[in-house]
Each structure stands twice: as C-alpha cells, then as structure tokens.
Amino acid sequence: MRTAGAIRLKGGGGVPGAMARRPVIGVIGGQRPPAESLPMAEAVGRLVSEAGGLLVCFALVGVMEAACRGAKSVGGLTIGILPGGSKAEANPYVDVPIVTGIGAARNVIVVRTADALIAIDGAYGTLSEIAHALDLGKGVVSLGSWDLAKAGVDTSRIVAAKSPEDAVRLAMVEARRPQS
Questions:
Q1: How far is CA 79 from CA 126, 142, 147, 157, in A?
Q2: Which residue from 33, 101, 146, 171 could staple onto 37, CB 3.0 to 4.6 Å apart?
Q3: Is the alpha carbon torsion for 33, 120, 87, 101 positive or negative?
Q4: Does domain 25-175 have CATH number 3.40.50.450?
Q5: Residue boundaries of the structural domains of the chain
Q6: Cβ-contact 93, 69 below 8 angstroms
Q7: Could you report the per-residue pLDDT of 123-163, keeping only the tens digit for each?
C-alpha cells in the first residue's frame, strides 16, 4: 500500500508503521548540452519516476530541466539543489527547491543525497560530481558522459548505458545495493 510517497514494508522490520524509502536517483549533466542529450534526459526523468524513484538534480537548465520535465510528465517528485540563494532560480519542473547559497559546492549535496547517479553529457561540474560519487563509493551510470577509462581512472563503479531505459534500470539496481 503506497502512502505519502513510500512503500509500506510487510512487518515493518520490527518497527510499527515502518516505510521503505523510495530510491533517490541523481541526474547530473550539462547546462548547455548538445540537442540530442535533452530527449535522453527527459526520458530518464520520466523512467525514474515510472520506476518509483525520486529525482534529485542541480535545479537549473539543460539536462537537469529536461530530466525534471520528464519526471513531472508522469507525476514524479523532483528535488532541486540550487547553488544560489533564491528558490526563484529553480526550473519550473522542480517540486522541492533546496536553496543552498553555496555555489558549486552543491555538487556534493546532490551526490550525497542520491542513492545512484545517472550522468548525461556534462562539463566540469558533472565531472566533479562523478568524482565525488566515486570517492563515496556510489555507482554512476554514464549515458554519453565522461570516458574516464582513457584517463586511467578506476572505472569499476561506472557503468555505461546504451539508452535511457538501460540507464534507469542500472541506476535502480545500484540504488538498491546496500550503502556503506
């Protein structure tokens, strides 16, 4: 039985009324991506919501706005971590704007909040989020993002996806992996 965005567990794990937390999938990517990245990002957002996940991202434009638009198209919940000091900065598809006033340091908040991340395209901000995820032992699904194997980086926690469907499937598996 679904209530308040959570899934009730059988027996509640010994806790009366305990709820299972929905997976939180971070979508990271460029603010000025190539045109072909936007439909992929929108599909990823929609598929994350259809799979029962919550979407967290940097709440501005580009890949993040497209992912939020996709999530909202099927009634999903979107959480946007803002770099500045105003909720008005959020794209129109963000349900929960988190105002930080900390600029690029918000990258760490997106990564720490997510159970798994999907990287679509991206510039240096995306690269820093991938680095934070790897440092924290979180999995990253790459959908046309940075190819770090060429740089000699241990890419055992990065999985390449061939499609938005593949990316969301892989991220949901990662999100359900016990976190350390």
A1: 17, 21, 27, 24
A2: 33
A3: negative
A4: yes
A5: 25-175
A6: yes
A7: 999 999 999 999 999 999 999 999 888 888 888 889 999 99
